[in-house]
Structure formats: C-alpha cells, structure tokens
Design brief:
By secondary structure, the chain is an alpha/beta fold. It contains ten helices and eleven strands. The chain folds into two domains: 256 residues, Rossmann fold (3-Layer(aba) Sandwich), CATH 3.40.50.150; 85 residues. Helix content is 35%, strand content 16%. A nine-stranded mixed sheet has the order 1-2-11-10-3-6-8-7-9, sandwiched between helices. A two-stranded antiparallel sheet has the order 4-5. Helix 5 packs parallel to helix 6. The N and C termini lie far apart (72 Å). The chain binds S-adenosylmethionine.
C-alpha cells in the first residue's frame, strides 16, 4: 500500500519517483522540479532517515535518468517540464549534464531561463567571502518539451506592460509583452527557517507559480517535492497537483502546501532596470542642483521621454519611492505646456552634450 496524503487537491506520494506508476501516461501538463544536486546537502525525514546526496556520479546520473524517463512517460505532448538546477562551485557544468540526461530520454530543449536569486538587496545567497570565485547569484531553469510541435506556453500569461506604448498596435493589440527569460525571484526570508529544519534547498513558491502560469496547464507534477513549493503554487493556482518525496517531512509539506503564499515580485525586464539605474544616476545630479520645485520643465526628446516613462514604471513596480523624482514626475505631468524655463533647458542640453 502506497503511503500518501492529499492536501486540497495536491497528492503527495511518500515514495521514490523512480517509479511513478500512480500517474497515467500523458496525463500531466506541467512538471516543475528541482532534483537533489548531489552535493552533500542534508535531506532528512521524519523517521530520522537521511538522504545520501553524495552518490558516485554514475549512480547519480543513472538515478536521474530513471526519473526523467518517468517524467517523459507521464507528460502530455502539450506539456512542459521546467527543470531547475544550479552548478555547484567545484562542479561546474553539472546542471548542463543533468539537462542532457533529460534530452537523452527524449525531451527537447526549448530554452533556458536564468533565475536570479538575489537582487536589490533582497533574497538569500551564500556569500562565500572567498577570493577564488565570484558569488553565484543565479541558477538555470531548463525548459524541456516532449513534442516540439504540440507544446504550449503563453509568455503573456506572465507578461508585463509595454514601456513604449507606441509598440501597442505595432507588435500586439494589448498592453502586454513577454517579460523575457531572466527572472528576478529573490528567496523569501522563510528559507532560513526551513533550512534549519533539515531541508536545504526549497525554491520560492513564486518560481513554480510563474512556470505553471506560463504553461497554462491543469495538472502539475513535482517528482522531488522537498517541502512542497511546487504543490503550494499549484494549489494557489487551483490546479490538480501530484508529487513524490522519498524522505518526507510531512508536517512541513502540509504547512507549505496549505499555507504557502508570497507577494509577487514585479516582473521587470533586466534592460529596463539597467536603464532606470542609468537614468537615475544621470539626471539626479541635475535635479539636485537645479532646485526642481522652482523650475518648470525640462525639454526632453521623444526618446528621453520614453526612457523616463520606463524609469517611472520600473520604480513603481519595485515600490521604490524616490521623493525628488516623484516631485519631478508630478511637475512633468502637470506642466507639459509650460515649457518656459530656458535656464533649465540650457543646463540639461549642456549636461547631455557633455555626457555623450
Ligand atoms: C532539491 S530538493 C527539492 C526542493 C523542492 N523544490 C522545494 O522547494 O522544497 C530535492 C528533494 O528530492 C528528495 N528525493 C531524493 N531522492 C528522491 C527519490 N528517489 N524520490 C523522491 N524524492 C527524492 C529529497 O529528499 C529532497 O527533498
């Protein structure tokens, strides 16, 4: 008799995913998973069992191949498999090898999403303090499909508004564009607590949430449940979820699935963020010394106005409040017609000329 629990339409089988005979062929729409990384992390279960996460490489690859073969069997031809894994510092390239194992079982590699785990001071990463390598701030999410012709994703399901609204109509009829394959999803603060309880590698619920939305499926599978982040996302999105965990922490899993939630990180295009920072540093010095509230309005070119709009949207999405800029945008909005301040235009033109 297989040991399992069901939490609000999310079924967790407490057994190895090397055999997922409980799941029918072609019945799963989205798989989101992160396997053991084989780098000696501690995975312990309720009964005091400890998973050996340092197998000989051949054995590790054989084990994953068996699981990926099962994933291939159960995935619907329309379905998508999001495989998250990062490189270990001393074991560079291991993530590529793990993705290649999936390719050998029949999957096609659609693309790779870069998951940035920490940005703007939010989120967790392990600062090494060492001098021989840079800290690693990202991991891969390999996007794999079973059938290159039949798979389905909808980039706009996790899209963002256009910065330059003149693109509406040119590229799309709605104010929504693809947000790209670099995802900024910081670890939540609770990660530290779960680490202490014996599970070192949960991903944030927001990560599988984005994947499930992108694939627009109804059935979800995670062959390596961990504490249950994928199934928590599946529950939030009202999907039917299935998962396997050989070394379960049942109370943690139950809590994560039934209570796991998050505040969505704004989807921001990395180029927009970079642009925002550039503009900010470029214009802030002018605004400081030219006493914004006494003056009226800069004369900006069309391109600069678009850039400033991107900055405005980006700051809004990040919930960042920069008072002098807010005041400036307010003036900009209200004083469009009052293009009178010669001095200001001169200052800006001079500055722009100098910074070319
Ligand atoms: C990287 S963790 C997954 C973390 C998960 N994404 C989360 O957010 O909680 C890998 C998990 O696979 C589990 N595991 C290891 N071998 C397994 C097997 N043969 N079948 C099912 N689960 C297994 C480990 O106990 C560990 O919890």
């Amino acid at each position: 008799m297989v040991d399992y629990d069901v939490f609000d339409n999310q079924t967790v089988y407490y057994k190895s995913s090397e055999n997922m005979s409980e799941i029918k062929d072609n019945s799963i729409d989205v798989i989101v998973s992160s396997p053991p990384y084989n780098r000696n992390k501690l995975y312990s279960d309720d009964r005091g069992g400890i998973y050996n996460d340092k197998k000989p490489q051949e054995e590790y690859f054989r084990f994953l191949t068996t699981v990926w073969r099962e994933c291939y069997r159960v995935l619907n031809p329309r379905g998508v498999f999001f495989l998250n894994i990062g490189d270990a510092a001393p074991d560079q390239g291991i993530s590529e090898n793990v993705a290649q194992l999936a390719v050998k079982t029949g999957f096609h590699r659609l693309q790779t999403i870069i998951w940035i785990k920490s940005f703007l001071g939010k989120g967790h990463f392990t600062p090494s303090g060492g001098s021989r390598r840079l800290n690693n701030l990202w991991e891969s999410i390999f996007v794999l499909v079973k059938d290159r012709k039949k798979y389905h994703i909808n980039p706009k399901a996790i899209g963002i508004p256009y910065a330059d609204k003149s693109n509406i109509g040119r590229y799309a009829n709605e104010d929504l564009r693809d947000a790209g394959n670099v995802w900024l999803v910081p670890y939540s603060k609770t990660t530290g607590a779960t680490i202490k309880k014996g599970h070192e590698a949960p991903f944030p619920v927001e990560l599988p949430y984005k994947c499930i939305k992108l694939a627009e499926g109804e059935t979800v599978l995670d062959p390596f449940v961990g504490i249950g982040s994928t199934l928590a996302a599946s529950r939030l999105l009202k999907k039917k979820g299935f998962g396997y965990e050989k070394f379960p922490r049942k109370e943690l899993i139950k809590k994560r699935i039934l209570e796991g939630s998050f505040k969505e990180t704004p989807s921001i295009l990395l180029p927009h963020l970079e642009l925002a920072i550039n503009i900010l540093s470029r214009y802030s010095s002018i605004i400081e010394y030219s006493q914004l509230h006494d003056e009226e309005f800069f004369k900006f070119s069309h391109k600069e106005k678009i850039q400033l709009n991107i900055l405005k949207d980006t700051l809004n999405q990040l919930n960042l409040r920069i008072p002098f800029l807010e005041e400036y945008f307010l003036q900009w909005d209200h004083n469009r017609e009052k293009l009178k301040s010669k001095k200001r235009i001169e200052v800006l033109t001079k500055f722009l000329d100098e910074s070319k």
